[in-house]
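Worked example

This section walks through a single chain of length 208. The input is the sequence exactly as stored; nothing has been trimmed or padded.
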Amino acid sequence: MISKPITTLFLDIGSVLLTNGWDRNSRRLAAEKFGLDFAEMDERHHLTFDTYEEGKLSLNDYLKRVVFYEKRPFTLQTFKQFMFDQSQPLPDMLPFIASLKSRYHLRVAAVSNEGRELAEYRIRQFQLNELIDTFIVSSFVHIRKPDVDIYHLALDVTQGQSDQVVYIDDRAMLVDVARGLGIHGIHHTSFASTQHALAQLGLTVEQS
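Given that input, the structure is written out below as C-alpha cells.
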C-alpha cells in the first residue's frame, strides 16, 4: 500500500478505454476495403500523422495527403465514417474506472494522443465526458506524448500531486516518462493486470 491516497487518474484512451482510433490494423483494413496500396498509404501516414495529432492539420487535410492525393472511386465522407467505425469500447475498463471514480471521488483526466475529429467523435459516441473530467488530448493542447510537457500540463490542470496520481497507458515507454515525474505508472496489458496494479495502490471495487 502507499502512504498517500490516490486522488487522480490519468488515462490513455486508445487500448485502455476504447480500441485505438486509427492504428496499423485499422489502416490495413481500410486499404483492403477501399483497394488502396497499404505500403504507400502507411508511408504517407507516418510522414504526416504526428502533425494531425498535434492539432496542426485537419482530418480532411490529413486524408488529402494520405488517401485523396489522387482521384478515388469513394468519397471523403465514406472513408471518414469507416475510420470512426473502428472505435469500439473496451467493456471491462469503462465501468471499472467509473466505479473507482465514484467510490474514491477521483479526478479523471484523459492524457491521450489523438487527432481532433477522431477524439471529438469518440468523446461523443461513448459519452466519455460522463467519466472523464478533463481532456488533455494532443490535438487540443498541441503537445504529444512522450513530450514531458503534456504530463506537466495535466498535473497543472488537475492540480494533482504527482505522488497521488496514477497514469495508465498501454505503451510502456510513455508510462516510464510519467514515472520520471513521480507519477505512479501502470502499463496496461489486460484488464486483470491493471485491476491488480490499482489494488496495490489502494483502489478496489467492492464485489457485488
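What to look for: The chain is about 50% helix and 10% strand.
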